[in-house]
Design brief:
Radius of gyration: 21 Å
Oligomer: single chain
Number of strands: 8
CATH superfamily of the largest domain: P-loop containing nucleotide triphosphate hydrolases
Order of helices and strands: HHHHEHEHEHEHEHEHEEH
Strand order of the largest sheet: 3-2-4-1-5-6-7-8
Distance between the termini: 7 Å
Number of domains: 2
CATH architecture of the largest domain: 3-Layer(aba) Sandwich
Largest sheet: 8 strands, mixed
CATH class of the largest domain: Alpha Beta
Shape: elongated
Helix content: 40-55%
């Protein structure tokens, strides 16, 4: 990504771009979706730095902005129920399938719940993914109550002794009240069968500060435990990952970097920082 290479050069006093000044650096960092608060804080600290320790100092500042919460996916004895939420178009349903592929490759038994019943294509898409992976997908009729599908999925997962149940939910975001009501009902009915282990929010990295807004709304509406960041493909706008963690203290647990089933890995903060400072 290399978002900070010119900032490091400026602090070191080795920049050869005569027109490059703090204002231009600020504009560049804002365009990377770090967010105004983080950019302001970073620039204030950078202006006090001198010498060749700039990269290490900047990295330490950035490192301090990551959430300290666990990035490990809930695991343990019994069924682990993971509810995946997010607005349509973020890659939510595909992320469910990729997470299933990731867990399946580790020898875990998986069941999928296609509770995004308001979008017929989502149910079909998830069912197709399940067939490719070789795992069962529970779905209802078109337009079925999402909570009903989630409930049936939880019962089936217990019956077959699955390690994980991944529930895809509807991605409509009309207003926070409707979101809370809909997702709250899913959580309540599933909780009657078994406790929910995680609520993962899917964010599209290319949506920039809009992604941060989505994260704020969802985290206020439901008990989000972590994030899946999609389309983090090395572009210069990957700063949103740091912005979200800094603002909301929510750990990014996985990132999607492409369209393939295996283009999905646990998020590594140190590797991410290396990319920013490359």
């Amino acid at each position: 990504m290399g978002l900070f290479n010119r900032l490091v050069a400026k602090v070191r006093g080795t920049s050869t771009a005569s027109a490059l000044d703090w204002s231009e650096i600020e504009t560049e960092l804002l365009s990377s979706d770090l967010g105004p608060s983080l950019v302001t804080e970073l620039l204030a600290a950078a202006k006090k730095m001198r010498g060749d320790d700039a990269e290490a100092a900047i990295k330490e500042i950035l490192r301090g902005k990551f959430s300290e919460k666990s990035r490990a996916l809930a695991d343990g004895d019994g069924l682990q129920i993971i509810v995946i939420v997010g607005v349509n178009g973020t890659g939510k349903t595909t992320s469910v399938a990729k997470l299933a592929t990731h867990l399946h490759s580790q020898g875990k038994s998986i069941l999928l719940g296609a509770a995004d019943t308001f979008r017929a294509a989502a149910v079909e898409q998830l069912t197709t993914w399940g067939q490719r992976i070789g795992i069962e997908t529970i779905s209802g009729k078109e337009g079925a109550e999402p909570a009903s599908v989630a409930f049936d999925s939880a019962k089936r997962a217990l019956e077959v002794g699955a390690d994980f149940l991944l529930i895809d939910t509807a991605g409509r975001l009309h207003n926070k009240s409707a979101l809370m009501d809909e997702l709250g009902k899913v959580k309540r009915v599933v909780g009657k069968v078994a406790p929910i282990s995680e609520v993962l929010l899917v964010i599209d990295a290319t949506t920039g500060q809009n992604g941060l807004t989505q994260a704020k709304v969802f985290s206020e509406a439901v008990d989000v435990t972590g994030l899946i960041l999609t389309k983090l493909d090395g572009s210069a706008r990957g700063g949103v990952a740091l912005a979200i963690e800094s603002a909301l203290d929510l750990p990014i647990k996985f990132i999607g970097t492409g369209e393939g089933a295996t283009d999905f890995t646990p998020f590594d903060p140190e590797k991410y920082l290396e990319g920013l400072l490359a």
